[in-house]
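Fold Annotation — chain and its backbone

Fields — amino acid sequence, structure tokens

___
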Amino acid sequence: MINGIESLFKFNFGSINLLILIVILAAYYLGDYTEAAAVIVLYALGEKLENTGIENSLSTTNRLINNIPKTVLVKNVGYSIPIDTIKVGTIIQIEPYKQIPLDGIIEKGETLIDESFITGELLPVFKTKGDNVFAGTWNKNREGSKSKGNDEFIEIRTTKEYKDSIFSKIVSLVKEPHRNQSNAQKFIEKFARIYTPIVIFCAILLIVIPVFFLHRNFQQCLHQSIMLLIISCPCALVISTPVAIYAALGNASSKGALIKGGKFLEILALIKVVGLNKTGTITYGKPIISDIIPLNGISKEELFNCRARTELLSKYPLAQTIVKTSKKEDFIPHKGIIFENIVCEKGKSQGTICKGKLILVGKTFIEKNYLIDKETREIINKLSIEGKTSVIISCEEKIKGIFGLSDEVRPHIDEIINELQNMGIKIVIITSDNQQSTQYVADRLHIKNVFGELLPYDKVERIKELKQRYKYVAMISDEVNDLPALASSSVGIAIGTSGSDKAIEVADIVLMNNKLSLLPFLIRLAQKTLKTIRWNTFGAIATKFIFILLTFIGYNNLVLAITADVGITLVVVLISLRLIQYRFHDTTNK
């Protein structure tokens, strides 16, 4: 009632509280004290249901914000310091079963880290010295390193200030939905602001016309007017959209996907085309050895060990891939003498004396300086067609083998793409990578539309062309050079912790756990949400229409009208909250 009086003095005739105040005063004037009390009790119940619905739908995302510690223990200081004052490079100590407040790298100790608030993964991840940890995650066991005078800790060297941490970005993303309302939310809010004053005006007419022109009984007309006000109150209609939106956003965030508002959830439900960047999205963006081809009588082990010895001191990424794979396969690099790089006519080779013989590793240099037979040339051409990098190993001026290196394709990506295509969604690769290597990957995944070797501006043009044809286009990437493409798409989707910070800021949806298998689920969740909103809106309007009709024909059971209004509100809230439990069946995580 107080809120209603405030709305009256502010001439806020779009307020539901003002409408309720008028109803209560009119019922009291008529001497219908039981009905006046029923209005207060039942609308208080309806308001409670609305608040409970929104609280439940926001509970998952609110936990992200409320649980973060405000201070942290700094090594060699002896007391806790506010996290917003901690500089990059500071060593902080995290007790067992405490939350990590800043991004960093473990300097000392090993533990299990619960990353469920960030990635949605339920199982803790084992972390040790050199591993990255993120703000908002939890130190779950007591396997840390001991610190003087304290219990067991893990020690972390901070890599970002709090304002730049993954968790801080998540907090800002959680607040985004309030600024990015769906079209349905905007429409219903505008509708309610116009609708309520119209209802009040109609209620006045329902008294004035019958009493002054038709000479009807004033109290009877007043009673009918009150009925109209009550049943016309748009509580269920107003609550139908936000509870559904927040329930869906909460569900998505619990799985590791952050959506910046109902606006993008609504668009996601209508997506017709998904554009994929190749490196970092379809593939991991990390080279792996895909082919080891010994030639001219040398064994695979001999070839690998000589190659690993030659690459041991090189900092070139492909060389490090060879060394790491050698250690993983338990091959022991041969002892030898490292030579400087040999360069001739832009050709380059790494040289080693291994077992008394000169070993050269390269491609361009060896092709320019040694005779390569037809069989070897065919192998190199075959690897090139498959989008792989060939590295040749020679010994004593003879080709001894070839290594093929490729970018590792994400596991189950073919299943994810197939699922999207079965949903009627067109898949397009939009990338700056080599056209030939991209085409090979596309053929393997049965993707027909491939655009390779594109500059950032070219990608934007491709996105615009697709939007003109299909209207709703999503773009997925984690690279900085794809920021214009993410921004120009209908919905930009970033690969979270593995991607760039700028991509996270620009994108409309962030997959914090890097799981592309979430995409089909998110689209289905968005479609389910849109369907729920439509049914809720239809149900609320239909109920209002029926009771308004009953009011005009003289039906005047006030308590039943109030109960019906609160009842439809309850039904709308319960239907919307079911979206929190909407299941994610990850068929790629068996």
